[in-house]
Structure formats: structure tokens, C-alpha cells
Amino acid sequence: MQAVFHENDWRVAIFNNINFVESKGWTDKFKYEGTPYHTKEKNSSYGLDAQKKWHFNDTTSLTAGFNGERESYDAYVTSDGVRSNFDRNVWAAFAQIEHDFDAKNNVTFGARETWTTGAYKSQNYNNFSMSGSWLHRMNEENNLYVSIAQSFKMPTFSEMYKETDYSIPNPDLKPAKGINYELGWKQNHGAHSWKAALFHIDVKDNITASWQKEPVKQYQYNNVDFRNTGIELSCKIDAGDKWSYNYGITWQNPQSKSDSVKKLDMQGKWERVYGKIQLDGGVGYKYKKFKSNLNFTYMAGRYQSQSQVNEPVKPYLLSSLNFIYTPDNHNELSLMIDNLLSRRDRTSNSSSDYYCAPLTVMLNFNYKF
């Protein structure tokens, strides 16, 4: 649930999110084989996000803001039958300045301070990150840009404290810190919008699920360094009042550094993970108050993390079809269909097996006031 106030250069949002997850079944874990398991947890958060934009002149503007959030995690049923709950407060202050040097060159600099309070056993985090970008307008159709941004991701309560017949808690998880580089070109030519980008990502202490099968089946979240280099090519086509199209390809080389005690010959070496080639495509249709979108994503060259050597995984093909009807400025009715082809594709890249749900239909109604 979210309430948003937006007027002139002010934007204030108040939110509250609640999520319940419950699992029941039979375990085949060595020690508990043939016995039932039951887990249930609740994740909730509420908070405030406020920001304002100041225009100093025609060439310079500043956006600054603050947000505060209360996060809670409740494990109602655990493997040992003892309920556990954890809370923390997450705070952030941020600012971004944008400046046009001239008609062709624009720069943007941003900074963000994130910190937590009230965490279990005083496991609080503090991080300062920055970002910067430069946009060069070559002419009316072509733009070049460079972007460098630091990233920061805290471990979730589920990653730190969740405990089941298969999962092992890791309360000592570190936050993931990274830096992203991107160099790109954009062109708007007639009905076509082209984009080409070269990117590189370095993440220290990336949070990753590690799985082992022997002597018992179990997994735990650990910190593993991650890197990825690739190139992205994409195109959007506005074919008129009704039809639109998009397609793209991404080639990348994602790798993680092995630290598993099960891979003695691989410790400290880079291993392939995730997928190497991704193809995207979609078709959009719009007529008066009605619009629809059909989208596909194909991922190939995939690798599955293992306790021994990472193994190739079959490609997956994800599909979705959406219908949206907007009778006026306040009401919106939408029908979302996921996995249109009802494929049973394995979507996870870790050693745990997660498959996409079969064809799923969701009907939504939104009211804006």
C-alpha cells in the first residue's frame, strides 16, 4: 500500500508493505527423510520517502531528500519450532545536482548516505556512495554518455536468519558493495530509438546462495565477489498511433569468485554463472483507452552453481501478455498473463531448483485520486 503526494517540485510517499510466505511438504534431507516440514514467515516494512527539487537557474538544479523505513521479519514456524523476530530502522539522505555546461554537454553528480539503527545485536550498517554521469549531445539525433555509480545492498533478514530443514542461517553476512561503469550511444531517428552500451560491474561481497548435497542437502547465503562485462544493443520502434515494437540482445560474461571449501582446486578462481546471451522482444498495441503488450525473454549460455564444478543449464524462454483498460484519469483495469506458453523452465541460477509457475492470470484494479 502506498500514498503519494506530488505537487510542483515536492514528492512525498508513505508506504506499508506486508508479505507472508508459508511452505509445507515432506523433506528428503538425510537426517529427517520422510518427515513433514512446515515453515511460515512474515516480512513487513513501513516508512516515508520525501524529496524536493530546486531550480537555481536555467542550467542548474538540485534534488535532495530523505527516507526512513522500519523493516520487520517474523519466523512463525522454524525447523526447531521456536519463533524468532528481527527488526531494524533504515535511514538515507541523498542529493543530486544536474548542470548544463552548454547546449551539448550535461553532467549529473549524486551522493547518498545510508545507515541503520536498532538492529539485532547492534549489527548496523553505514555506507556513503556516489554517482556521476556525462551526456554529450552530438546532434539532434545522436547522444553519447558515460556513467559511473557505486552500489550498496544490505542483506535481508531472510538471508541472515531464515532456518528450515534445508537452510542454514548466516547472521554474519556482509553488505554487497559495487561499482558500475557504462559507456553508451543513443540515437533517435524517425520512428526508431537505438541504444548501444558497453558495461562493466564489480561487486565485492555479493550475496549468493551456496548449496551442498553431501553429507546432507542444505544451502546458506554467503558473500562471494562478482564481476560482469558485456555489451547491450536494443531498438524501440514507434510505428504510429497503434503499434510499437522493441528488440534487443545482451552479450555478457558474468563470473563469481569461488570460496567453497568443496572446491579446493577452484578457491580464489573465477567461475561462470548466470547466462551469457539474452534476447528480448516485444509488441505493443494501443487504441483509444485500451493498450496491450506481448513480451519475450530468452536466456542462453547459462550456468548453474554447484558445490563442485558449475554446470551448464538449459536456456529459458519467459513470456507475458498484458491488457490494460483506462476509462478515465482515475481508474485502471489490467489483466496480466505470465508464462503465456506454460513452459516449465528452471529460472534459478544457483544450485537450488526453482521453476517458473505455469500459465498465471492476474486481474488488477487501480484507482488514483
Tally of individual helices: 1
Q: Sheet bearing the most strands, described?
A: 19 strands, antiparallel
Number of strands: 21
- Broad structural category: mainly beta
What is the count of structural domains?
1
- The rounded distance between the terminal residues' Cα atoms is 14 Å
| Rg over alpha carbons | 24 Å
The level-1 CATH class: Mainly Beta
- Predict the CATH topology: Maltoporin, Chain A
Q: Specify the overall morphology.
A: globular
Helix percent reads: under 10%
β content, as a range? over 45%
Low-confidence stretches: none
Q: What name goes with the CATH superfamily?
A: TonB-dependent receptor, beta-barrel domain
General description of the model:
By secondary structure, this protein is mainly beta. Helices cover 1% and strands 65% of the residues. It has a 19-stranded antiparallel beta sheet that branches. A two-stranded antiparallel sheet has the order 17-18. Strand 17 and strand 18 (311-313) form a beta hairpin. The protein is globular. The mean pLDDT is 88.
What would the keywords be for this entry?
Maltoporin, Chain A; mainly beta
Short description:
The protein has 369 residues and is an all-beta fold.
Layout of secondary structure:
Elements: E1 2-7, E2 10-26, E3 36-55, E4 60-77, E5 84-100, E6 105-117, E7 126-137, E8 142-153, H1 157-161, E9 176-189, E10 192-212, E11 218-238, E12 243-252, E13 255-257, E14 270-272, E15 277-287, E16 290-300, E17 302-304, E18 311-313, E19 316-325, E20 331-338, E21 360-367
Antiparallel strand pairs: 1-2, 2-3, 3-4, 4-5, 5-6, 6-7, 7-8, 8-9, 9-10, 10-11, 11-12, 11-13, 12-15, 13-14, 15-16, 16-19, 17-18, 19-20, 20-21
